[in-house]
Write the structure tokens for this entry.
Amino acid sequence: MNATESATIEAPQQEAVTPSILIVDDEPPMQMLASTIVNRLGYQSATAASGEEAVKVYAEARQNGETFAAVVMDLALPGGMSGLEATIAIKQIEAGAKIIVSSGYLEQNARAAALEHGFAGILPKPYTAERLASELRYVLKSGQ
């Protein structure tokens, strides 16, 4: 190659990584609904039915070099570890984890209290696809 010729060097193509959302809910229909919505929004989804399972799934993902862009955490998980306890455990694994609290017992104006407890967002049940999409956009764009 001489000075007037130029070589085109192409950077290796990197596959775009699709963000994953962890859905934590003890009710299979809610897991399925939320996963379907999340997948239609262009995200990957994983599910957990208990606080213990959520912490395990989150920790295993981190050990494998993977991350969750956000977690939708039901507060009312029967028996064992509550949603709040699971949130605390996940925050110990990754302090910057973005966790959206979800419950049928939340009031619309509970965002400030949720933020004080380390949650990045709030999603009162029952929720619509539009509400879940809106909260995910809010949380993923925020610096929380």
